[in-house]
Design goal:
about 300 residues, five-stranded mixed sheet, about 20% strand, elongated, five-stranded parallel sheet
Amino acid sequence: MEIDTVLLIDDSEIICSIIKDILESPNLHIEIAHTGEDGVRLAREVQPTLILLDIIMYGMDGYETCKILKSNEETKDIPVIFITGNNDSSSLLKGFEVGAADFVCKPFISEELKARVKVHMQNIKNQRKLQVLAEELRELATTDSLTKLYNRRYFLDKVHDLVKSNTIFSLILFDVDCFKSINDTYGHNAGDLVLTSLSRIFKLILREEDIISRWGGEEFIICLPNIEVDEAYKFAEKIRIEVSKFQFNYEGYIFNCTITGGIAQYDIKLPIDKNITKIDSALYTGKSTGKNCCILA
């Protein structure tokens, strides 16, 4: 069961006790702070779903506390409901100006307090669901569903960005040798295992800034920013050797596979498709002269 946390910041122990009795339940935990300073600290530590904040407190008041909460990256998105005995328009306006999401006026009615908390808790949950959905949609738009590597469109966009920024970079195009034979011998699920395993090997060897994409079928393309062609060849050879040593295990069948690569430094005088044709031609040369090798364009 998911348990949410509400942080209550109020210097009155009586008010805290009353609110806790009203709100606390098996799926809602109440954390309490009696000063603004402690409230800010607890908000960072606990990351509550919602904050209930008294305006008038000794020391740092609710307005200042809310300002600090909203200026901090860790707490700025947590909704704050002010608890106040002042329901005049100037007090309410000042509260909204510092970032309050809502107000509950004292003396408060239990059912009203519950209702306001419930509404804002549901809103924040809905926002989280939308964020998850947006991330899933972004992943679908930019990644290959099998390998979870970037797809062709995203790769081309990133290459275009590097060209615009005048960054030196190199490209490697890999193809799995005898991939049809793997599918024919062990089945297409074994072929999928090879592709996903190769993806992990590539990512383990490459740097964080490198861009790798499933180019199509059993082909993978890699962009190495700030790497000239000689260094790119070393990268390609390291990957090729690691792949050749790796043993694939599919339903008790142990087998190896190899890859062939074509490498070139990106030529800004040529369009993207011509640069890719260069590494594709180098790859074809490697394929036709024995496979399991890396060829410079």
